Amino acid sequence: MTRYFRDFPARSGDRMLLKMEHYLEIYDEILAGWQGRDVSFLEIGIYKGGSLPMWQGFLGPASRLVFLDIDPACRDLALPGTLVEIGDQADPAFLDRVGRDHGPFDLIVDDGGHKMHQQITSFRHLWPRLRDRGLYIVEDVHTSYWPGFGGGFREPASFIEFAKDLIDRMHSWYTEDDAGFPLHPLAREIGGIRFHDSLVVIEKRLKEPPVSIAARNGQVTRSRRILEVRGRRSIF
Ligand SMILES: C[S@@+](CC[C@H](N)C(=O)[O-])C[C@H]1O[C@@H](n2cnc3c(N)ncnc32)[C@H](O)[C@@H]1O
To answer: Ligand 1: which of 27, 42, 89, 94 to mutate, judged by most atoms within 8 Å of the beta carbon?
Structure first.
């Protein structure tokens, strides 16, 4: 496994990087397959600019690297080969414009203001700009437990409750309750959701309705019965 992220702080330059330490091992693990790939990348939150060289050194040389922040001073932190956009991650018009101008993205990292409405609005407007097989990463989701950020334990408006709700959306193929729990379009788009300590990673995977297989002597039979018996023919 790569040690790129774990080794990066010791190799950092004069720009401050601000991450929780345990993210580095998780990034080494979940992003290993992305190292050196030319991709389209967006990070929300620049602060002192320490993450720009981190992502630039990890991703391929032809990558499109976009960073956004609400603080106009961050404009000066752009590096050659990176783009900086100034605006509010809770402003739908700004997000839509960034998505139109620079998307679609393969990787999106939200390390911005960490308030509930910021994380949720950003997800709603940027998820459609994420490519198939791309990852949407939200950092510092422990703010979901902090009233000062709009969170609180089991606070319905928190990002962590929003993310838990995505688990249900992903499984909404399997509903037996069309009225109370209808099929949601995200069932066709979410491949997986990983909850780490303080990090949520949502994978986009454009999917057909799931089928089961029966295999014997090399013969494979596919069946839609798992959904058809639940009256879900309409979704095929
Ligand atoms: C945690 S720092 C980013 C750290 C940086 N990503 C790193 O890894 O070193 C958070 C940044 O989010 C920015 N921010 C706060 N609210 C924002 C908002 N509503 N829209 C965009 N950026 C915001 C702040 O100005 C600050 O620079």
So the answer is: 89
Whether the predicted pLDDT of 136 surpasses 60: yes
* 215 plus 195 within the same structural domain: no
Q: How do residues 189-206 score in pLDDT, each as one tens digit?
A: 999 999 999 999 999 999
Q: Where are the beta strands (DSSP E) in 54-198?
A: 64-69, 82-86, 105-110, 130-138, 190-196
Percent of the chain with pLDDT strictly greater than 70: 97
Residues 131 and 216 in one domain: no
* Residue of 22, 102, 114, 142 with catalytic role: 114
CA–centroid distance, 47 to ligand 1, in Å, is 5
Catalytic: 22?
Answer: no
Contact (CB, 8 A) for 199 and 138:
yes
Does residue 50 sit in the same domain as residue 108?
yes
